[in-house]
């Protein structure tokens, strides 16, 4: 209780609430614009966090994270184009309700209510579950930490890329990048080629901006080729959901919030998976199945509650184990590390007030998201009309400013451009940017604990297989990598047999 | 034609091999702990192993993925290459002339590439964005931006 009061005093200040408000507002705008992702929004504003002390910058990033997931629903409902992949399922019923049924206000109102409920529900779950999980994780030693890092990388690479092999390659690229610089255990220089810049390792933030923002902006330029700017003029009647709608969607929203929180807590999954599963479950349990696809209220509520509930869930492995749940939490984890805070079980004993500040920040961000959603939705609707011809140069300029701002170094700008261009081609070749970033983040954790564990066992690698928790994580890692390959192989064989029979 | 998978496998093998080659000269032991070459060497070997798996899976799979049919010289991609050129030129101008001058040139250049032809529109956007970023970062947040080489 003492920690909650302390965190409350830290978070509920004019500066911090203003920053969360600013972050949430930017997040909603970024989310509402098709072509801009949640990760891009967080990466672009990451350098601003350096201007603030303590948790203020982190709270702003939390606001962007929550706001961007919600913002994706605006363009999903009005344009039939999801602002973010997490809102793809919202188009199925949101667009028919808004345009075909002529009820855009109703669709946006239900989306806002469900998003806020999902976000608050997951924040509450995070607050209850994570301290318990952290207590278990406190018993971990070097072999368990190494196995955990491998688990985090493998599970993310197995689901985040179209090809599991390329997902793993991306993870290894990230791990290799993290080895550049001075070795933390022996102070030996590795892969620096006499460069003073490389002695400190490749700076994480320019890589992040390059991979998540610069490369995405290049893809937007490619996609925007020949695209005609169309102005959308939508008149909104009312934006508050009616009591009848609230009664009808209550259990759907509750179920979807639970699904979203659970899925978010599994590293590597994300809002897109949560929203589709929530949508399917809503359809399965609905008494109005025939309305789905034509503007069913449950069809709008379920994916929005599900994808926003991912936010709290994704913080569970990040805060308790130091394993980011998705690309966005990977960036927030990086921001915490820049502030000298290492997420993991020790965070709960050493920086308890900061953990509770994050919990509270999520509550405040979701509450602000609701206030902004209901009061300013008419403004956000106009945002989708901002032409890409203006937006793209602004994004590029911000990537340069962001990369320079960390160390006031132009070398960081060159590094950002290099990784941005490399990222563009890697995305085209089906590599996952999240896998690379998570590899960079977890690299030092994996390496130092591998070496510590080998010291403990006098060089015997059986230490990883004789300790139950370590063995569990290694088994799950292997399963997560092998299972998709085997299932794809079986599917292909079945298809061949079916074709042969036909 | 599955050339891209083979090219990717070749490139990753070279990267993996380079890391193994460079790691071999690192100390093998540090006291009773493994030396700094163990981890990067191990990762390099895994990368080569993955390249081999990629080659084998490409050879044994009949299905051709969309990625394999990708052409990197289409008109929209050529526009991306031009933009890459502009960004590289921008970083060089940034180094010599600082943020303000470089951005005032960069924004109209990108807008022109995106088929904006109104000079008024380009100049106004460029001035507004540059001023806004300068005010927010330098004056409000105290975050410095690149200065011209003769002011450093």
UniProtKB/TrEMBL annotation, chain A:
Q: Which residues form a coiled coil?
A: none
Instruction: Keywords in alphabetical order, please.
Output: Membrane, Transmembrane, Transmembrane helix
Residue limits of the DUF112 domain? 19-437
**What Pfam families does this protein's entry cite?**
TctA (PF01970)
Q: Which domain of life is it from?
A: Bacteria
Transmembrane region(s) = 20-46, 58-79, 107-129, 136-157, 163-182, 194-214, 355-380, 392-425, 431-450, 471-490
Q: What InterPro entries has UniProt attached to this entry? A: DUF112_TM (IPR002823)
Identify this protein by name: Putative tricarboxylic transport membrane protein
What organism does the record attribute this protein to?
Anaerovirgula multivorans
TrEMBL record, chain B:
Q: Where are the transmembrane segments?
A: 5-22, 42-60, 81-114, 126-145
Q: Which domain of life is it from?
A: Bacteria
Tagged with keyword Cell inner membrane: no
Under Pfam families, the record lists: TctB (PF07331)
Q: Which residue ranges does the record assign to the DUF1468 domain?
A: 8-146
Keyword annotations from UniProtKB, A to Z: Membrane, Transmembrane, Transmembrane helix
The record ties this protein, via InterPro entries, to: DUF1468
Q: From the Swiss-Prot or TrEMBL record, give the protein name.
A: Tripartite tricarboxylate transporter TctB family protein
């Amino acid at each position: 209780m003492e920690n909650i009061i302390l965190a409350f005093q830290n978070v509920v200040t004019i500066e911090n609430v203003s920053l969360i408000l600013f972050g949430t507002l930017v997040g909603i705008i970024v989310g509402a614009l098709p072509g801009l992702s949640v990760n891009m929004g967080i990466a672009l504003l990451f350098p601003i966090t350096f201007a603030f002390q303590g948790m203020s910058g982190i709270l702003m990033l939390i606001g962007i994270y929550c706001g961007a997931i919600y913002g994706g629903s605006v363009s999903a409902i009005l344009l039939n184009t999801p602002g973010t992949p997490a809102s793809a399922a919202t188009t199925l019923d949101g667009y028919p309700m808004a345009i075909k049924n002529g009820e855009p206000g109703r669709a946006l109102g239900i989306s806002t209510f469900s998003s806020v409920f999902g976000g608050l529900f997951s924040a509450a779950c995070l607050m209850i579950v994570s301290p318990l999980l952290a207590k278990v994780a406190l018993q971990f030693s070097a072999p368990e930490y190494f196995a955990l890092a491998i688990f985090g990388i493998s599970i993310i690479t197995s689901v985040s890329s179209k090809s599991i092999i390329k997902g793993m390659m991306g993870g290894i690229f990230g791990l290799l990048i993290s080895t550049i610089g001075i070795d933390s255990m022996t102070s030996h220089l590795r892969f620096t080629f006499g460069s003073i810049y490389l002695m400190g390792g490749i700076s994480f933030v320019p890589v992040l901006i390059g991979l998540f923002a610069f490369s995405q902006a290049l893809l937007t330029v490619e996609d925007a080729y020949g695209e005609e700017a169309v102005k959308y003029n939508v008149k909104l009647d009312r934006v508050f959901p009616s009591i009848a709608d609230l009664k009808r969607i209550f259990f759907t929203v509750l179920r979807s919030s639970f699904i979203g929180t659970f899925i978010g807590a599994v590293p590597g999954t994300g809002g897109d998976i949560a929203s589709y599963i929530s949508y399917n479950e809503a359809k399965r349990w609905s008494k109005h199945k025939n309305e789905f696809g034509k503007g069913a209220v449950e069809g709008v509520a379920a994916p929005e509650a599900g994808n926003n509930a991912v936010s709290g869930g994704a913080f569970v492995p990040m805060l308790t184990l130091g394993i980011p749940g998705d690309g966005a939490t990977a960036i927030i984890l990086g921001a915490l590390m820049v502030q000298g805070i290492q997420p993991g079980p020790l965070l709960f004993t050493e920086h308890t007030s900061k953990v509770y500040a994050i919990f509270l920040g999520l509550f405040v961000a979701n509450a602000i998201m609701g206030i902004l959603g209901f009061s300013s939705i008419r403004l956000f609707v106009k945002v989708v009309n901002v032409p890409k011809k203006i937006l793209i140069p602004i994004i590029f300029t911000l990537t340069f400013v962001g990369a320079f701002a960390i160390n006031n170094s132009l070398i960081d700008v060159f590094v950002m451009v290099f990784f941005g261009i490399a990222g563009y081609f890697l995305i085209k070749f089906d590599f996952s940017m999240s896998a690379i970033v998570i590899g960079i983040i977890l690299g030092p954790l994996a390496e130092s604990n591998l070496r510590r564990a080998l010291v403990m066992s006098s060089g015997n690698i059986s230490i990883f297989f004789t300790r139950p928790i370590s063995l569990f994580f290694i088994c799950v890692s292997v399963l997560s990598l092998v299972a998709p390959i085997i299932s794809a192989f079986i599917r292909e064989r079945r298809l061949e047999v079916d074709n042969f029979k036909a | 034609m599955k050339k891209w998978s083979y090219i990717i496998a070749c490139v990753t093998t070279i990267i993996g091999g380079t890391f193994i080659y460079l790691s071999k000269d690192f100390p093998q032991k540090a006291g009773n702990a493994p030396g700094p070459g163990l981890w990067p060497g191990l990762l390099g070997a895994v990368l080569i192993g993955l390249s081999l798996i990629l080659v084998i899976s490409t050879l044994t799979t009949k299905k051709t993925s969309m990625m394999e049919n990708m052409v990197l010289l289409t008109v929209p991609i050529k526009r991306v290459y031009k933009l890459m050129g502009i960004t590289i030129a921008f970083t060089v101008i940034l180094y010599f002339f600082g943020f303000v001058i470089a951005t005032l040139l960069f924004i109209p250049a990108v807008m022109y590439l995106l088929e904006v032809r109104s000079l008024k529109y380009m100049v106004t956007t460029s001035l507004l964005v540059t001023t806004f970023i300068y005010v927010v970062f330098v004056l409000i947040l105290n975050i410095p931006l690149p200065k011209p080489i003769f002011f450093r």
